[in-house]
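Entry 12.
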Amino acid sequence: DTEHPGAATLQPPVLIDPANDAVVSTPTPTFSWKAVPGATKYEIQIWAAPSGPPYVVDTVVTGTSYTISPGALASGTRYGWTVYAGNGSDWSTYATIPGSTYVPAFTVQAPAVVLTPPSLLQPTEGYEVWPILSSYQVTFRWSSVAGATSYSVWI
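Predicted 3D structure (tokens):
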């Protein structure tokens, strides 16, 4: 979190994307804004709305866009965002919706991730456990699935 004390001499950036009240269909949207004359860096802040900080993102970049990392935003959640313009000695005030004192907000509605089922590797098809060997342990192994965070085994 960068402090922004004192009177600002830089203009705040004009925010471009995502627009206010946008519904974004990706969990990794790209945020963009117009360059500010005299600015050499920009601080972008993103938080779950309407609560405000803590920030999901609070980082300084040198360009006029920022793509959020996977996993930072939750689908079905509304977020606020703003950008400050800065240089070696000064920061602008925060960027707002043009003609307003409010910051823009957007909602993430990313499509559900469809995972493919894993393949059973062990025990192999036709494997039998004899009832007389009741203390016998069976080991189950399966192929990993990209994007899976857990597995359920049903017997």
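Annotation: The mean pLDDT is 86. The radius of gyration is 24 Å.
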